[in-house]
Amino acid sequence: MHLNLNTKNSDIIANCNYFVTKIGVIRHHYEHDYKNHQPGMQKQEFLNIVIPIKDKLYRMAKRILISHDEAEDAVQEVFMKLWSGREKIKNYSKPEAFAMTMTKNYCLDRLKSKQATNLTIVHQNYKSNDARTEDQVEARDGVGMVFEIMKQLPEQQRIILQLRDVEEYEYSEIAEIMEMNETAIRVNLSRARKLVREELIKKYNYGLTKN
């Protein structure tokens, strides 16, 4: 079973003005690079790498953090971290996998921190009006129902399902991002799909019974 859930969050970082401003601030701290005529990775070169994957980073962040606003903040923070370590990006054959791994780890740390401070109630209610509107629209069709079910999956299974069935990553790429072997990825994906399928059947049968 392959869930075809391709979606795009067109509202994610509608423009890069804020980000470019932040880069300017960081660049000030790296003035010695320019004074010594060793500029390293330039801003445009960096943006050419990260902008094409920003939507994927956002969807990963939102799948973990749920909140629209927190997901955007997380992506912004990851962008800043990537810029600070921009020279390392050149050492990776797959910068996208590196960025996705960083996003995953950052969001999981944020989630653990929230749980530790007993903010899960705030977490559930911390949705913007746009996010609530989006949820209402999605709830009208099967895709929205699947996304709601995915939120209830165990953390690891939820991320793997997102990477495979939504982002359409290869198993080898998911293994790299999740820092797991491919066998474990396939097992978790199979379990996640089974749970989603079972919940869909329950909801469908409930709808028939109710009607």
TrEMBL record:
<comment type="similarity">
    <text>Belongs to the sigma-70 factor family. ECF subfamily.</text>
</comment>
<dbReference type="InterPro" id="IPR014284">
    <property type="entry name" value="RNA_pol_sigma-70_dom"/>
</dbReference>
<keyword id="KW-0731">Sigma factor</keyword>
<dbReference type="GO" id="GO:0003677">
    <property type="term" value="F:DNA binding"/>
</dbReference>
<keyword id="KW-0240">DNA-directed RNA polymerase</keyword>
<feature type="domain" description="RNA polymerase sigma-70 region 2">
    <location>
        <begin position="55"/>
        <end position="115"/>
    </location>
</feature>
<dbReference type="GO" id="GO:0006352">
    <property type="term" value="P:DNA-templated transcription initiation"/>
</dbReference>
<dbReference type="InterPro" id="IPR013325">
    <property type="entry name" value="RNA_pol_sigma_r2"/>
</dbReference>
<dbReference type="Pfam" id="PF04542">
    <property type="entry name" value="Sigma70_r2"/>
</dbReference>
<keyword id="KW-0238">DNA-binding</keyword>
<dbReference type="InterPro" id="IPR013249">
    <property type="entry name" value="RNA_pol_sigma70_r4_t2"/>
</dbReference>
<feature type="domain" description="RNA polymerase sigma factor 70 region 4 type 2">
    <location>
        <begin position="148"/>
        <end position="194"/>
    </location>
</feature>
<dbReference type="InterPro" id="IPR013324">
    <property type="entry name" value="RNA_pol_sigma_r3/r4-like"/>
</dbReference>
<keyword id="KW-0805">Transcription regulation</keyword>
<dbReference type="InterPro" id="IPR036388">
    <property type="entry name" value="WH-like_DNA-bd_sf"/>
</dbReference>
<dbReference type="GO" id="GO:0016987">
    <property type="term" value="F:sigma factor activity"/>
</dbReference>
<dbReference type="GO" id="GO:0000428">
    <property type="term" value="C:DNA-directed RNA polymerase complex"/>
</dbReference>
<dbReference type="Pfam" id="PF08281">
    <property type="entry name" value="Sigma70_r4_2"/>
</dbReference>
<dbReference type="InterPro" id="IPR007627">
    <property type="entry name" value="RNA_pol_sigma70_r2"/>
</dbReference>
<keyword id="KW-0804">Transcription</keyword>
<protein>
    <submittedName>
        <fullName>DNA-directed RNA polymerase sigma-70 factor</fullName>
    </submittedName>
</protein>
<dbReference type="InterPro" id="IPR039425">
    <property type="entry name" value="RNA_pol_sigma-70-like"/>
</dbReference>
